[in-house]
Write a structure and sequence with these properties.
Layout: H1 3-9, H2 12-17, E1 23-25, E2 28-31, E3 43-46, E4 51-54, E5 60-62, H3 63-71, H4 75-85, H5 94-119, H6 122-130, H7 135-140, E6 144-146, H8 152-159, H9 164-169, E7 173-175, E8 181-183, E9 188-194, E10 201-208, E11 216-218, E12 231-232, H10 234-244, E13 246-250, H11 253-261, E14 267-270, H12 277-284, E15 289-292, H13 298-313, E16 317-320, H14 329-334, H15 342-345, H16 349-359, H17 363-378, H18 383-397, H19 401-406, H20 416-437, H21 441-444, H22 455-466, H23 469-475, H24 477-487, H25 493-512, H26 518-535
Parallel strand pairs: 13-14, 13-15, 15-16
Antiparallel strand pairs: 1-2, 2-3, 3-4, 4-5, 6-9, 7-8, 9-10, 10-11, 12-14
The structure holds zinc ion.
């Protein structure tokens, strides 16, 4: 069965009804959009086409994307989720399943091995108990133990018929210089890293029991494990994150366990040092707000600052939560203390920088804080939010917002200004390409000129509609040289038309949406569905 065939058997109205109250209107269903806040419904579901679309925020897709967005799953995981939910006997194509299936099975064997060892090794269990981890959470996180002896796991897995090359591929075994095989993890408490749907163990993070270096050791990347893309604890935190639309980011595995034990079940951690955009992108689909709860010593603050910038650039609302200096959630757990009021105690970006601003006593130091603040704010994708933060900070220290806005560092990457210029040129060029392609003149009339960012484009657009573009080019030298420039990129016209025309049309309809009758809305809906479908 192909994914398309599976989709035909999925009842998208039933699926979405679990999260959204849908009412029938004509051949479609309508409800309040689950992806943005609204009071009047602009979220439509078409059972015939098997798709949804929101006129308020532009969210749209099919059953798979709906599950990906609302449950925070990958494409593959979402397909399997639907198959289970609707009792559809779905299997991935054999070849791929076999290759990866093998690797998952091996990880599963290794994981069970570690879990069994923990039961029979009291010092390891004691260590966890002393740190305050309750048995219930040892089970929930499926923690294990890797014995210190050289190659017990390797021997065990080979006895189960697993080839040693696969063990090396998965980072369970390594080859010594003299050619022997050694377990990768030895004498460590083992935290399994699960796939985001919790079905597979992808890798491990091992904490040394007793003294030794490194304190934490992660599985190397493998065909099934990409450290930078996985969040530890996501499989257990997913539901709470979806419910609260927020997540708490902590530094280590023990911190995640501590937070879950304290009832903060929307807590996750990155694997390894720095959080990556790839890992946070996955989170962004199901959360709007990120609380960063790192150690408040200098190293922790630096890491929090880095994480904040990554999160801000993806459009998260970010709060930094500071604990007592030098202590992390794991310390609280060990001491039997509790962390409350995360939501209330977070510093927003302004408060966070204001704290440093007040701490620094020199004028030059304060200048650096302002530059750093502007760096962060400039990462925000939403220009209105950017302005609001600049104004809030400027007001709080008593300077003008305009002045603060000019106070940016010389950027390493192309500045916002040239980026904006580029975008304007791209926009003009795209319009040109559509016009020159000739076959879309009818669609051109459907575009609302408010979708354009620059006046040059609007001018061009109006001339196209009036039909006097050629005359205008003859009269206007600037337009003439622009047209030569645009024409020189001719070979890429076709691709641009496909990419851009569709999104302009959709945005145009969305702009006109409020003024349309129900009947017209349905007509537009069908068109938008069709456009989106064709794009895929
Ligand atoms: Zn919406």
């Amino acid at each position: 069965m192909t994914v398309d065939e599976l989709l035909k058997q999925v009842d998208i109205v039933e699926l979405i009804s679990e999260k959204v109250e849908l009412k029938r209107v004509g051949s479609q269903y309508r409800g309040l959009c689950p992806f943005h806040r609204e009071k009047t419904p602009s979220f439509y579901v078409s059972p015939d086409l098997g798709v949804y679309h929101c006129f308020g925020c532009g969210a749209s897709g099919n059953a798979i994307t709906f599950v990906m967005e609302t449950e925070g799953l990958s494409y593959r995981e979402a397909v399997e989720y639907l198959a289970r939910k609707f009792n559809i006997p779905f299997e991935w194509e054999k070849k791929r399943e076999k290759k990866e299936g093998d690797l998952y099975d091996i990880m599963d064997l290794a994981h069970n091995f570690f879990v069994e060892r923990l039961k029979s090794h009291p010092p390891a269990l004691n260590y966890l108990h002393e740190r305050g981890v309750k048995d219930e959470f040892i089970l929930r996180f499926q923690i294990g133990y890797a014995p210190p002896d050289g190659d017990v796991l390797t021997k065990y897995l080979i006895s189960k018929g697993v080839g040693v090359d696969k063990l090396i591929q998965l980072g369970l075994t390594r080859r010594t210089e003299d050619g022997r095989f050694l377990d990768f993890f030895r004498g460590r408490i083992m935290f399994p890293v699960f796939s985001h749907d919790g079905r597979f163990v992808l890798g491990f993070s091992g904490r040394i029991l007793g003294e030794g270096e490194p304190k934490y050791l992660n599985s190397p990347d493998s065909p099934i494990f990409k450290k930078g893309e996985v969040l530890f604890g996501f499989n257990l935190a997913r539901r709470a994150i979806v419910r609260k639309r927020s997540a708490i980011l902590v530094e280590g595995q023990m911190d995640v366990i501590a937070m879950h034990q304290m009832g903060h079940e929307n807590t996750i951690a990155s694997l390894g040092t720095a959080i990556t955009p790839e890992a946070l992108k996955r989170l962004k689909r199901i959360a709007d707000t990120l609380y960063i709860l790192y150690d408040s010593d200098n190293a922790g603050l630096k890491a929090a600052h880095r994480a904040m910038n990554v999160a801000v650039s993806l459009g998260f609302t970010v709060y930094i939560v500071l604990l007592d200096k030098g202590s992390d959630p794991a310390d609280y757990m060990r001491e039997g203390r509790h962390i409350d009021n995360i939501e209330k105690n977070g510093y927003n970006i302004t408060d966070f920088y204001r704290m440093f601003y007040d701490r620094v006593k020199t004028v030059e130091g304060r200048g650096r804080v302002l530059k750093s603040f502007m760096e962060t704010v400039n990462l925000m994708p939403d220009p209105v939010m950017r302005q609001l933060y600049i104004k809030e900070f400027a007001d709080s220290i008593g300077i003008s917002a305009d002045l603060l806005e000019t106070y940016s560092v010389t950027p390493k990457t192309p500045s916002r200004y040239t980026e904006r210029e580029d975008r304007v040129l791209d926009e003009t060029y795209a319009l040109w390409a559509i016009y020159r392609s000739g076959e879309h003149s009818d669609k051109l009339r459907e575009i609302d000129e408010r979708v354009f960012r620059s006046t040059v484009t609007v001018e061009l657009f109006r001339a196209m509609l009036r039909g006097d573009l050629e005359d205008r080019i003859k009269e206007d030298e600037k337009l003439a040289s622009l047209s030569v420039l645009l024409e020189s990129r001719r070979e890429t016209f076709e691709k641009v038309v496909e990419d851009v025309l569709h999104s302009w049309l959709v945005r145009s309809y969305e702009m006109k949406y409020a003024q349309l009758s129900e009947e017209e809305k349905e007509k537009y809906l069908a068109l938008i569905y069709e456009l989106k479908r064709r794009k895929k």
